[in-house]
Amino acid sequence: MAAIARSLRRRSSSPSLPAATFFSRFMNTLVLGEHENGFVKPSSLNAVSAAKAIGEDNSVSLLLAGSGPELRDAASRAASSHPSISQVLVADSDVLKHPLAEPWAELVHLVQKKCGYSYIVSASSSFGKNVLPRAAALLDVSPITDVTEILEPRLFIRPIYAGNALCTVRYTGANPCMLTIRPTSFSLPHNADTTSDAASISQVDLSTFTEDTLGKSTWLNNTSQNTERPDLGNANIVVTGGRGLKSAENFKLLEKLAEKLGAAVGATRAAVDAEFVPNDLQVGQTGKIVAPQLYMAFGVSGAIQHLAGMRDSKVIVAINKDADAPIFQVADYGLVADLFKVIPEMLEKIPEK
Ligand SMILES: Cc1cc2nc3c(=O)[nH]c(=O)nc-3n(C[C@H](O)[C@H](O)[C@H](O)COP(=O)(O)OP(=O)(O)OC[C@H]3O[C@@H](n4cnc5c(N)ncnc54)[C@H](O)[C@@H]3O)c2cc1C
Q1: Which end of the chain is least crowded, N or C, by CB within 10 Å?
Q2: If you take atom 19 of ligand 1, which residue's CA is the nearest one?
Q3: Rounded to whole angstroms, how far apart are CA atoms 192 and 190?
Q4: Number of domains in the chain
């Protein structure tokens, strides 16, 4: 079966979906791809890794939607962005220009009806959490969310109780088995940027695309931090501030440190609620899940809801003036000290990037 899948991959790119239909007799997976500025987001490539973890013979198609040159750039880069992508499906329409959940769910429904995938996978990002359940409802199946490990093709592990327990779930429903996966749990292969074996690119036939759901939500604008710093979800180093920072002004100290370290800035919910920083920096159960190489927590107590979002970090460093703060229970290195002394000292001693 693997040999057939591979030989199909090397066929010349076909213009529309029937080539994909051919895969339906095998284990095949549709991965929902997010893209920005002509690049596929790393979390979508983590979802491709997860799809491959379902089975070696799994044929993986990446679905990209949007319009214009950005979509075309993203598609051509996606074709050689991960060795496990067999084909890139491109849905080019103004209706799909912005990643609104309703048209995207319709699109997934349409593609699934034509191609009959056995799995549909998305990163557990805001986008995935928005689109996948809607598409699952249209397809009348029950999705499994926040998967961190794939034990067997239909046996998954996902955290429950804010990450304090792991639950093993067997999917017994009909196809497609729909999953959101935690990106940090599925790493990219080392040769992820290979250009030697590019996947084929096919256009999705949108002639039967129903637009019934359009108008239920409207795209207003995209507000992003427009910063040079890495994205919180994918950064190698995260420096997080808690209520101990005391003000938005003091958070600037942490931002300077992040700049020197090439790190992303995170925050606790208490810091977000106090309006020190916007809520897209929140790490935790109701924020982002991160697992960087280095996580530094300044003035963070270590509530379980916060730990749920960072406990898988490789090395955790905590700086807190209270020696009994629970964060020290998960920290690899702890410093009982006043952060207002520690951060300026670090800024002084760490050389410029
Ligand atoms: C349903 C639910 C979901 C939640 N989701 C999240 C979530 O996603 N993410 C999240 O973070 N929280 C979440 N919370 C909130 C969580 O329970 C905690 O309230 C929050 O994490 C506490 O944030 P904090 O550590 O910044 O503040 P605090 O608990 O107030 O801790 C501040 C810490 O700073 C230290 N400190 C103060 N001054 C200094 C100084 N000068 N130097 C060094 N240390 C200092 C103190 O000793 C203290 O340990 C959630 C809560 C609920 C109920």
Answers
A1: C
A2: 270
A3: 5
A4: 2
